[in-house]
Amino acid sequence: MEKVSDISLHVLTSDDFDDVMQLMRRTFYAREVVTNVVGCSDDVMDAMTTAVIQNDLENGVCFGLRDLKTKKLIAVKICSILTRDTHHPLEPVKPETFKQKAILAVAQSVPPPESLFDDPNIEKILYGRFSNVDPDYTRRGLSNILHEACERAGIEKGCQVFYSQVGDKALLGNMINKGCHVLQSTKINEISLDGQPVIPKSDSSDFSISALVKILIPGTYKFKSSL
User: Fold this and answer.
1) Is residue 221 situated within a structural domain?
2) Which of 26, 90, 81 minimizes the C-alpha distance to 52?
3) Tens digit of pLDDT for each residue in 108-135?
4) Which domain holds residue 98?
């Protein structure tokens, strides 16, 4: 575990793109539950995340932490702002391989962020896409610092609710402690694609994907659980 004497919080921009992707490739893909369960490679994930991250780094609601001594980017949280006019800032990457399609099938097994627009009061959604802390810098509350910064920025930009999908049980508990509610959870080993399970039936692992929502501006959204 690295010793951090001082860290710097800053809004991520396109200038940070290479460092963000380096951190994602070095640690996120290897630890992210859904990626591992489905068995996606770094190349598959790069194809599905690069364009989205490039676009999001210009929206003012993505944050990073650097070790001031080493200048190393040690943690990031990537968020999107969704509106009624542009549910997704970019057209979704068209999946080509079974594993790419499987990742999307898992994501689509729970209510998507745009489902929150069914509430006529919702105009903007802060969508938490990716959160990653370098393993050498964990257990310091860095993810909490990033999440709070993203929420503050989202509120300043008029986002009424926060939405995210979580596959890690520990992260799920942490997000619930932050005030998030579970819209719906789906067991990954029960999800099929074109009649074929997205993970082998022999895999009895109890992994689930959960859709979470948190009200950022009181009185703008009435939580409805699908559980």
Assistant:
1) no
2) 90
3) 888 889 899 988 889 999 999 888 888 8
4) 7-215
